[in-house]
């Protein structure tokens, strides 16, 4: 059996283990949440976002599912309610539009007093199969990175104080790893800068995506040392992973009772619209690590990257 086959076998075995783990209910002493616990899931009307919403609601959390199209969100929560999940709501939200984020923030504060869990799932990808067009690079970066960043900035002030701490989970990708064997950032100097969490800054991350978009515009991106596969999507998730680590460091300075823990995870190549339904992972398995990170008892984990409930290197 070759390396590829062994790797595939290990992954399939791990996914089977996770499917079994999902059937084991949380013990009472592990459940820090209740139906008063509010979770916001962006892009929750379909795919991984919808499944994360469903699983969180099934665990007894009140879920606010957001979608760009409000009517689609209404239809999505009807499906959940018909499945017996009543503590669900929806609200229109376009993460590209700061006024939409502001309106959502005001509504959330007025109706729920804030939130406890934020799952940044909203994202786009325009390449399928072996495609690697950067025609939509600006939209990909603005949605996947800046949309996530702007939501975090808007939601942090609304995070409720609690001994358990607030939770932020960013849906990311292994394609955005700094040190993966494949699809890595080839610019060694930039990789070194992004690897050093002590000197990591918002200016560095924003500067990276700005440089990438400038090179896309002038046609020089192919010689820029960017990840060779799904380049625009990979750069957007590289930025999300770096921002996760940066925010973990900043948020760790908050006092007890106001802690916020932030992590990112890779759902895998899931059978959803984002992959053109060409993925190999079920939506249930793809959502699992996001739900698990949202509900971790005795949460002290922050600034980490996960896949299949295990930490992996950035």
UniProtKB/TrEMBL annotation:
Keywords: Coiled coil, NADP, Oxidoreductase. One of its GO terms (molecular function) is oxidoreductase activity, acting on the CH-OH group of donors, NAD or NADP as acceptor. InterPro entries: CBR1-like, NAD(P)-bd_dom_sf, Sc_DH/Rdtase_CS, SDR_fam. GO terms for cellular component: membrane. Residues 168-203 form a coiled coil. It comes from the Eukaryota. The keyword Oxidoreductase applies. The keyword NADP applies. Its EC number is 1.1.1.-. Belongs to the short-chain dehydrogenases/reductases (SDR) family. This is Short-chain dehydrogenase/reductase. It comes from Psophocarpus tetragonolobus.
């Amino acid at each position: 059996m070759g390396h590829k086959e062994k790797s595939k076998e290990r992954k399939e075995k791990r996914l089977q283990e996770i499917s079994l783990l999902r059937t084991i209910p949380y013990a009472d002493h592990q459940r820090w949440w209740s139906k008063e616990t509010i979770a916001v899931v962006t892009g929750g009307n379909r795919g991984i976002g919808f499944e994360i919403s469903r699983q969180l609601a099934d665990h007894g959390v009140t879920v606010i599912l957001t979608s760009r199209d409000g009517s689609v969100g209404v239809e999505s929560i009807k499906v959940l309610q018909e499945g017996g999940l009543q503590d669900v709501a929806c609200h229109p939200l376009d993460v590209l539009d700061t006024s939409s984020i502001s309106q959502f923030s005001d509504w959330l504060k007025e109706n729920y007093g804030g939130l406890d869990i934020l799952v940044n799932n909203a994202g786009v990808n325009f390449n399928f199969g072996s495609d690697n067009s950067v025609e939509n690079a600006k939209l990909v970066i603005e949605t996947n990175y800046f949309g996530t960043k702007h939501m975090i900035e808007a939601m942090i002030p609304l995070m409720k104080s609690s001994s358990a701490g607030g939770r932020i989970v960013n849906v990311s990708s292994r394609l955005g790893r700094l040190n993966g064997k494949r699809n890595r950032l080839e610019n060694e100097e930039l990789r070194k800068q992004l690897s050093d969490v002590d000197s990591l800054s918002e200016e560095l991350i924003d500067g990276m995506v700005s440089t990438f978009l400038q090179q896309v515009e002038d046609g020089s991106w192919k010689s820029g040392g960017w990840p060779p596969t799904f380049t625009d999507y990979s750069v957007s998730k590289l930025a999300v992973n770096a921002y996760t680590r940066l925010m973990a460091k900043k948020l760790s300075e908050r006092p007890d009772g106001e802690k916020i823990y932030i992590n990112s995870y890779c759902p895998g190549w899931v059978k959803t619209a984002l992959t053109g339904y060409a993925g190999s992972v079920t939506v249930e398995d793809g959502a699992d690590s996001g739900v698990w990170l949202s509900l971790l008892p005795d949460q002290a984990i922050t600034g980490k990257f996960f896949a299949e409930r295990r930490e992996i290197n950035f």
